TrEMBL record:
The keyword Cell membrane does not apply. It comes from Ciona intestinalis. Residues 146-166 are annotated as: Disordered. This is N(4)-(Beta-N-acetylglucosaminyl)-L-asparaginase. Coiled coil: none annotated. It is an enzyme of class 3 (hydrolase). Substrate binds at residues 213-216, 236-239. Its EC number is 3.5.1.26.
Length: 321
């Protein structure tokens, strides 16, 4: 049932939905709501896949991707591969508010964040260090370099990053361990009483990624998209594949043509599945009037959260994939 205002987010993280909802009700700013909601997950390290201390890369470092988009004026602020700053969505908001740019990356995004008053600190925790050490001890080969075939018969020596050329992409991506337990991005949509919409994402990306890797989450139209004239969409899943199809943009454009949110998200995933049948991902879309739909593939199920006035609590909706 369509209703405004509304807050929606990927995965069963009602604490993030509630943080966004309180902010929306008190400030009536959809950008504040999305920033507060995603920040809540960064602080809580939702499922270990948002915020600091998760998804260490091949060198053991956690880096963050985040984006925030204003569907009224189509302004976007984003950070990719952000190092040593915990509040990635906060930095993305500053990119939106304080620059003419859209996306800042890596160490230089950290320098910008420091100028904006954010603290520089390590994103490594005992947990992420342990993940990295366990992986190094068990794996002879890096995960995301596709011409490297792990040899299960050899004992793993000290880990060394490879500089071999990446000439083919043959490994089924599902073998890379992308599943709902270890790769969850928060994607959030907030719409106020007047139909003004904002979208945002925050994630620490893929575990054991090649250092420097940026996923779909900070890319407009890929991780999320919002347009007050239509609605918005957010994505989670295998970002290296998803970013090639701009699925959030695709879903919004299908809704512009009259598709329901459910049809629009299914269609956007089907376009990817044609090329990558074992791909894992999910999309949630909302029309400007507050009608919600979702689709998923590759996970056994997918959950998302919805908060409106008619429900005293955030609802967690389950979708079978
Ligand atoms: C990424 N899309 O960096 C993110 C990861 C994710 O559910 O969403 N997992 O590729």
């Amino acid at each position: 049932n369509a209703e405004l205002p509304i807050v929606v987010n990927t995965w069963p993280w009602p604490q993030a939905t509630d943080a966004a909802w309180s902010s929306l009700i008190s400030s009536s700013s959809v950008l504040d709501a999305v920033e507060q909601g995603c920040t809540r997950c960064e602080v809580d390290q939702c499922d270990g896949s948002v915020g600091y201390g998760g998804s260490p890369d091949e060198m053991g470092e956690t880096t963050l991707d985040a984006m925030i988009m204003d569907g009224g004026n189509m302004n976007v602020g984003a950070v990719g591969c952000l190092r040593e700053v915990k509040n990635a969505i906060g930095v993305a908001r500053r990119v939106l508010e304080n620059t003419e740019h859209t996306l800042l990356v890596g160490q230089l995004a950290t320098e910008f964040a420091k100028e904006m008053g954010f603290k520089q600190e390590s994103l490594t925790t005992n947990h992420s260090q342990q993940m990295y050490d366990d992986w190094k001890a068990k794996n002879c080969q890096p995960n995301y370099r596709s011409n490297v075939t792990p040899d299960p018969t050899t004992s793993c020596g000290p880990y060394k990053p490879t500089n071999q050329l990446n000439t083919e992409k043959t490994k089924p991506r599902v073998e890379l361990g992308i599943d709902q337990s270890n790769h969850d991005t928060i994607g959030m949509l907030a719409i106020d009483m007047n139909g003004h919409i904002a979208a945002g994402t925050s994630t620490n990306g893929m575990t054991h990624k090649v250092p420097g890797r940026v996923g779909d989450s900070p890319l407009p139209g890929s991780g999320c998209y919002a347009d007050d004239l239509v609605g918005g969409a957010v994505a989670t899943g295998d970002g290296d594949v998803m970013m090639r199809f701009l699925p959030a943009y695709q879903a919004v454009e299908s809704m512009r043509q009259g598709a329901s949110p459910t049809q629009a998200t299914e269609d956007a995933l089907n376009r990817i599945l044609k090329h990558f049948p074992s791909f894992s991902g999910a999309l949630v879309a909302v029309t400007k009037d507050g009608l919600v739909g979702a689709a998923c593939t590759g996970f056994s199920s997918f959950h998302y959260c919805v908060r409106t006035k008619s429900n005293p609590m955030t609802s967690v909706i389950s979708v079978k994939c």
